[in-house]
Amino acid sequence: MTSLLINGVLRQAAGGRTYQNINPATEASIGEAPDCSRADADIAIASAREAFDNSTWSRDHEFRAHCLRQFRDGLYAEQEELRNILVQEAGVPVALTHSIWLDTMLDAVSYWADLATNYPYEVQISARDTLAGVTSARTVLREPIGVVAAITPWNYSLPSNVFKLSAALAAGCTIVLKPSPDTPWSGTELGRIIVERTDIPAGVVNVVTGADPLLGEVLVQDPRVDLIHFTGSTGVGKRIMASAADNVTRVCLELGGKSANVILDDADLPSLAAQIAGVCAHAGQGCALTTRLLLPRSRYDEGVAVAKAAFEALRCGDPTDPDVIVGPVMNARQRERILRLIDKGKQEARLVVGGGRPDYMPVGYYVEPTLFCDVDPDAVIAQEEIFGPVLAVIPYENDDDAVRIANNSVFGLSAAVHSSDTHRAVGVARRLRTGTVGINGAVWLAVDTPFGGYKQSGLGRDLGAEGFAEFLEAKSIALPG
Ligand code: NAD
What we know:
The strands form 6 sheets. A 7-stranded mixed beta sheet has the order 14-15-16-13-12-18-19, sandwiched between helices. Strands 9-8-7-10-11-21 form a 6-stranded mixed beta sheet, with helices on both faces. A 3-stranded antiparallel beta sheet has the order 5-6-22, with no helix packed on it. The longest helix is centred in the first third of the chain and has 17 residues, at 61-77. The chain has 16 helices and 22 strands. The chain is an alpha/beta fold. The mean pLDDT is 97. Helix content is 35%, strand content 22%. The radius of gyration is 23 Å and the shape is globular. It has 2 domains: 4-255 and 458-480, 3-Layer(aba) Sandwich (Aldehyde Dehydrogenase, Chain A, domain 1); 260-455, Aldehyde Dehydrogenase, Chain A, domain 2. Bound molecules: nicotinamide-adenine-dinucleotide.
């Protein structure tokens, strides 16, 4: 049984209520998580408010850097426990935990520990005439925004939690973290590490979990919260934005995607097989995966053959097996939704590989890697975020057509461009309405690089200086010049 963290104490939900944490690979419970009530969330918010308003946390930069380094060291010390949780609770293939799901993201905390002291929190603007004709010097203070409600999804659970916690703490905020109901231990474990391995004061970090996703609404609607930092689906993001309007609470929204992988007609197609198959990593449950493959008509058959071979080589498997990259999807509801969209795809396009549940994995929430070709750019499977191991292949006529199809989406999270001419690929990248673009396999995911979406993929940025600024307010002080 894991614990909530509220006001510096690891404790259970009021009344001792719990719910089962289900392993998606076995459909069996791995243990319990606290099932918070509205009253528990209320105390967590009150604690975060109190710690922000009535302690030195928000002003003591050196102490925050010290605490963040302790947090980073604690994560390293508990790395194998965290790996186990990711695999058991979220079905993340263990092979992927050796990359961005765990091993390569732990040192990210160092970036924020440095920002706690090295960021330009005070900027002087020298004395000169203001608009009122009065000569004045000005100081711009970047102050912590206050109490952060961090609400996270299951697919990239642990990194999302670590990123939000670290950035908020570095900025001097206090925080209430609410992980997804499907991945509660990715949050509670961090609470335990904070209590047992850091000097972070009581109330600065609070972790609440619950079976009802609407627990998040309690945080969103509370006027004591200054920033809602949300990662999740576009539908929930819209609802949060509407609720936040009542208190004019600031929101940062990292939402869904339907990203395009644009293969230009001079690309080295056979070398792209692994990259194309990568869309099925973690069963396709990645917001920025390039789930639309745009192939030039002149090389369409060749491209389909490469994609077909790549998909036929993929097999679902037990996430504890180090050779597996396609594990289960999160839960039965997700699997049914994905299968419904696959059925829609069978009416709209040509099914080339997969198309159902793998008969070789009778237990667990598995979906076969599924490839559709000849997909119309306006088809449902080309427009909706499926969030499963499904790729839609779309032919295009020329570069302008490719750009038009890539941008034909309500989303704008990410994209990839492949060409033997990097200059030409960058030209296409500049025309894409997305927050990130990877060229010829290059990777944009890094702590110092802003990540986020255009259009309905979000509002604001995560990571990088832009992401850090989401946790700050600007205050301008004028002094006689
Ligand atoms: P989700 O939107 O269903 O849930 C996300 C979180 O919001 C969960 O903690 C959930 O309990 C909570 N929630 C649900 N309803 C709420 C409400 N009314 N008020 C407040 N909180 C509420 O998303 P999910 O299914 O957990 O995750 C998958 C989605 O997340 C996909 O759409 C994916 O693209 C997106 N995602 C985006 C990014 C990004 O950085 N852009 C990263 C990872 C995942």
